[in-house]
Design a protein that fits this description.
alpha/beta; Spore Coat Polysaccharide Biosynthesis Protein SpsA, Chain A; seven-stranded mixed β-sheet; 8 helices; 37% helix; binds guanosine-5'-diphosphate; binds magnesium ion
């Protein structure tokens, strides 16, 4: 890693007008070279506020979804020359002041991907996570750990940092435009044997911080099961999935390492 890597924060935004200001104000600006916000066709003032704050703004002309939003975020961050890309949700759910902790393992070349985990510290339920989200998070995490052969504390966080190499290697375009994107990129990263580290972050739950209903979360859970099934088929060689294969020859099954 370079002496002073270029750190770019990306914010996938959808109706984040009420929380964008707070989120941006808490970012340790001396550590961040650029903040990119992608507005996914919000119906509120998100774009106007982003412009006022002087963020690098990209606007989808309609709502394409959370995954599509991240695709634009990473494309633009790479284009802008990022060495490290940190996703920070503009809904103020994850504490932006912890950015140095999230970036450090990549700067020190101890990791390629860093996840801010809400399940490493104090009880997430005491901090407001609904009990059914907590239980399904635990269950899916154990299942994903088993399939991926890892021992992470959660896969469902939206606070993530990636090295440039990761984002150049995974086949982002083959991923979903919806919320399952977050799990698909993890499966790709695991298949490429990238180094994943976790750092503890507190959980915050309030009206604007979370919109996923019980039904949406259940559908999400089922989509994860389907993803894991496809991953097992891929990994065992029964049915290779292009989605999980690296775009870079250095990584994955064909790599000479
Ligand atoms: N719901 C939704 N969120 C989006 C979309 N595009 C980007 N996002 C952002 O994705 C983040 C996660 O959504 P959220 O409802 O907070 O999910 P949760 O915190 O996991 O319950 C938020 O910061 C949104 O601003 C979209 O199309 N739909
Ligand atoms: Mg949220």
């Amino acid at each position: 890693m370079k002496e002073s890597p270029k750190v770019i924060v990306v914010m996938p935004a959808y109706n984040a007008a009420k929380t964008l200001h707070m989120t941006y104000a808490d970012l340790p600006r001396d550590m961040v070279d650029l903040v990119i916000l992608v507005d996914d066709g919000s119906s509120d003032e998100t774009a106007r506020i982003a412009r006022e704050l002087g963020l690098e703004l990209f606007v989808h002309h309609r709502n394409y979804g959370y995954g599509a939003n991240q695709k634009t975020c990473y494309r633009e961050a790479l284009k802008a020359g990022a060495d490290i890309v940190v996703m920070v949700h503009p809904d103020y759910q994850y504490d932006p002041t912890l950015l140095p902790d999230i970036v450090r393992p990549i700067r020190e070349d101890r990791a390629d991907v860093v996840l801010g985990s809400r399940l490493m510290g104090a009880s997430p339920m005491k901090q407001g996570m609904p009990w059914w989200k907590f239980i399904s998070n635990r269950f899916l995490t154990e299942l994903e750990n088993w399939v991926f052969g890892l021992s992470l504390s959660e896969y469902h966080t939206g606070y993530r940092a990636f090295s440039r190499q990761v984002l150049e290697s995974v086949n982002l375009q083959m991923n979903s435009d919806g919320f399952i994107f977050d799990q698909e990129i993890m499966a790709q990263i695991v298949d490429l044997r990238m180094r994943i580290t976790e750092v503890p972050v507190p959980t915050r739950y309030f009206a604007q911080a979370s919109s996923a209903s019980f039904t949406q979360s259940s559908v999400y859970g089922l989509k994860i099961l389907w993803l894991l099934a496809r991953y097992i088929l891929h990994r065992s060689g029964v049915a290779k999935q292009r989605q999980f294969e690296s775009l870079e020859r250095r990584y994955g099954a064909g790599a000479a390492r």
